[in-house]
Write a structure and sequence with these properties.
By secondary structure, this protein is mainly α. It contains nine helices and no strands.
């Protein structure tokens, strides 16, 4: 009886390990595709793929995160005219992820989603979408004060804010410097987000 139990436990363990390996391989493949994606069609397809992976796994937030991230890159594309509709899609993916976990990476994407909406009409939307973007950054910093993407995004916010309103290159530069330093010392776990270092370095160069 004991041998039968041990054998069954071994089979369950091997099955779980095989499933986990398959998940990791599928995620690595699609993350690589996301890193090289250039077109809206490619990004739309990847967002849907990550969403399906999340629905299949049911208990992992990372697939939904990458679905939201792919949709975010669509929002930054000038060809995407309806930023509000795109942000609604981002937020739907985020809601699935945040039903499983809340963390700094998800808050970073929340920030970008709200920022995209705010930039449709900064003057009229600063008090709403702008506030939401700032709140997401604050929550992200509280969750992980060493997340380099948060400093990059905060730097971008100040870089785009006129000096008379407390922004400008001089205010943004220390944040980009902090972001780059954190990127260089980061040791991300497998499948964890790694985007942002190149962008932070490019923005830092513009502040010199």
């Amino acid at each position: 009886m004991r041998k039968s139990f041990l054998f069954l436990a071994l089979l369950v363990s091997l099955s779980a390990g095989a499933q986990n390996d398959k998940y990791t391989q599928v995620m690595q493949k699609n993350i690589s595709l996301l890193d090289s994606a250039k077109t809206i069609d490619e990004l739309t397809s990847l967002a849907a793929t990550f969403d399906r992976i999340g629905d299949a796994e049911k208990n992992k937030w990372l697939p939904y995160y990458y679905a939201a991230l792919a949709q975010t890159w669509i929002g930054w594309n000038p060809a995407t005219k309806d930023k509000d509709a795109n942000s609604a899609k981002i937020n739907a993916y985020l809601a699935k992820a945040e039903a499983l976990e809340t963390n700094a990476e998800l808050y970073a994407v929340e920030n970008m989603s709200a920022t995209q909406q705010m930039l449709v009409d900064p003057q009229s939307r600063w008090a709403t979408n702008g506030k939401d973007a700032a709140t997401a950054l604050q929550k992200g910093m509280a969750a992980d004060p060493n997340n380099p993407r948060l400093y990059y995004l905060q730097g971008m916010s100040l870089f785009g804010t006129p000096p008379q309103f407390g922004g400008g290159k001089d205010k943004a530069k220390p944040l980009f410097e902090k972001s780059v330093a954190l990127f260089k010392s980061a040791q991300p776990k497998p499948l964890s987000p790694t985007w942002g270092q190149q962008q932070a370095e490019q923005m830092l160069a513009q502040c010199q």
